[in-house]
Amino acid sequence: MDHNLYLEKIEEVIKSINYPDYPSELYAPIRYTLSNAGKRFRPVASMLACDLVNGDCNEALYPAVSLELLHNFTLIHDDIMDQAPLRRGKETVYRKWNTDIAILSGDTLFAMAYDFLIKTDPKILPQLLHAFNRIAIQICEGQQMDMNFEDSYDVSIEEYIEMIRLKTAVFFGGCMQIGAIIGGAPQQQIDLLYDYGEKLGIAFQLQDDILDAFGSEKEVGKKRGGDIAVNKKTFLYLKALELSNPETSGRLRHLFSVPAASETEKIEEVLGIFEKLKVRTYAEEMIEQYFEAALKVLDKVQADQRKKEIFRNFGMQLMKRNK
Fold it and tell me: From its phi and psi, is residue 259 left (phi > 0), alpha (psi between -120 and 50) or beta?
């Protein structure tokens, strides 16, 4: 089945969520967040994985929605920690309401995710809960590493890749794992799909680094240079340090260690260094390496070639997105 049909089914369920009227301050941000639709890549990936292993995709629908709710929970809390003003082109929850409301609404969204996850075959529920909780815990581990890096001067590219594996890639892997479990796939195939999703997720986050730095605010829906503004040690920054001379590397370290007199000037200066050193090209090469590695894993999955082609095209869509 085409992934757009899965997207339609997911949207129908999300739109049908019945929110209590009281307290309105708690549920309004959740409604706002879920209606500000992203691409729903994660739940669609889960349903595609279920279909790939010839499972009943109707059984995967509610667990897939639970994954979308989990994702949006992480976004609400991430925006607080990153002090991000925009998400998908609109004000972030903590900015539109306040930080306390955003924390509570995010927590409620997390609990709602469990309500959807348990609408499945009781026989496989322990497996699903284990996979779901593993995603949630590892995202938190990755987020803590990300925050640790903001105050560190010696982050390596290898450490950065491990951080984005935890913060982003395990989510993609876990979504495909959950879909394959629901579809009744043997463990070897489940593990392959998890590996495929994880490698795809690393490429996805590296692409996100590029979009944050070089994408337009209108297209990306987030503030341009947001990672630079909050001193995030992205692949672009770390590669720039590796390639630069002592004077330039010293300037970069200084820019990422002191409050900027002008945030706009800081972002433009850093982007100028990135462009001079052509770090975007290195990031694009790394993306290609991980994407090709993901496709090699997918080749090992035993499935109908037509369905694998749909799955492969979905991965290519992730890599070609502009937001």
Answer: beta
- Give the domains, in start order, of the chain with CATH numbers: 3-320 (1.10.600.10)
What's the pLDDT band for 11 if we cut at 50, 70, 90? very high
Instruction: List all residues 6 or more positions away from 85 whose beta carbon is below 8 Å from its beta carbon.
Output: 91, 92, 95, 223
Residue 91, classed as helix, strand or coil, is strand
In whole angstroms, what is the distance from residue 196 CA to residue 53 CA? 14
Beta-strand pair 90-91/86-87: antiparallel
SS3 121: coil
Return phi, psi of residue 50, to 5°.
Answer: -60, -45
pTM over 0.90: yes
**Radius of gyration, CA atoms only, the chain:** 20
Closest to 211 measured CA to CA, from 198, 229, 227: 227
C-alpha 148, offset from chain centre: 19
How far apart CA 314 and CA 175 sit, in angstroms, is 14
